[in-house]
Amino acid sequence: MNLTWTWADVEALQQHVEQHDGIALKLNWDTLHSRKEESAADLIEFRDGQLVAFLGLYPFGSTLEVCGMVHPDYRRQGIFTSLLQRGLYLATVGSYPKILLNAPGNSDSAKHFLAAYPCRYEFSEFQMKHSPQEACTNAPSRTAQIALRSAEDTDRPLLARLDQEGFDLQPEEARMYYEKLTEEEIRQNELIVHEGEAVGKIRVSRRDQEAWIYGFVVTSSRRGQGIGSTALRQVVERERAKGFEVWLEVALNNPQAKKLYEQTGFRVCRSQDYYAYLR
């Protein structure tokens, strides 16, 4: 039997699972599309000639994030447990001090599975969608003159430093993350330039009709000057003009960022939960 497959098959499975369960999976398609299908050959499952399960592994510095799915008709057969055993015992896993299992916050099937799996709840993130009608009348009045430019290969150290400041990454893990990116992946980051100096960054990932904002940070010495809010509004306006819905994520323990996003017109629509894998 010829069990060939493409990323389009994984997307079709995702759509079926999401419609059946009423959830939104975080499969990080910008990362997946940078890989070849055969790189995930050990992390899929076929039954009755069709692809029925998928497990994605996503390295982010010293952390490995894991997210997957099983066709509703093939659950409770040990398929996902088998995929996790295969995925989490690959030789590369030993190099990640932390492994996080990701699941939609409203997924009952995920909660049931994870309750019996060796893991513990770690944190959650809000997923927020931009809506012009939601923009607060008391939106930040402070603005700044900024410009956006694509990052270049020589900006890797700057990108790593900004991630250290914004996301509490260790210097070595931030450096290693950007060292592994291709020049094309580096250019997907945009630097926020103020008074001739790159003082922040933002990245937009587009898929279907959605534009997702990631890695948004302004260096600590330049915060509170309207730089971040101005950059965010510019990116939102640009993406909406192109016809995209604009989304972003924010940790539940970051109320200051959440307030900024709400003032810019974002509202919470759903959440993603993260569980630490217990080895």
Number of domains: 2
Proportion in helices: 25-40%
> How would you sum up the major sheet?
11 strands, mixed
| Named CATH architecture of the largest domain | 3-Layer(aba) Sandwich
- Average pLDDT, all residues: 91
The helix/strand series, from N terminus to C terminus, equals HHEEEHEHEEHHHEEEHEHE
Number of helical elements: 9
What structural class results from the helix and strand content? alpha+beta
In terms of quaternary structure, the protein is single chain
Distance between the termini: 36 Å
Provide a compact summary of the structure:
With 279 residues, the chain is of the alpha+beta class. Helices cover 31% and strands 33% of the residues.
Describe this structure in words.
This protein has an eleven-stranded mixed β-sheet, with helices on both faces. The relative contact order is 0.16. The chain contains nine helices and eleven strands. α5 (156-167) crosses α6. The model has no long low-confidence stretch (mean pLDDT 91). A hairpin with a 2-residue loop joins β1 (44-47) and β2. It has two domains: 7-117, Aminopeptidase; 129-271, Gcn5-related N-acetyltransferase (GNAT) (Aminopeptidase). It is of the alpha+beta class and 279 residues long.
Question: Which helices and strands appear, and what pairs or packs with what?
Answer:
Elements: H1 7-21, H2 29-32, E1 44-47, E2 50-60, E3 63-70, H3 79-87, E4 98-104, H4 108-115, E5 119-130, E6 146-150, H5 156-167, H6 171-180, H7 183-187, E7 189-194, E8 197-207, E9 210-218, H8 227-241, E10 245-251, H9 255-263, E11 266-277
Parallel strand pairs: 3-4, 9-10
Antiparallel strand pairs: 1-2, 2-3, 4-11, 5-10, 5-11, 6-7, 7-8, 8-9
Helix pairs in contact: 5-6
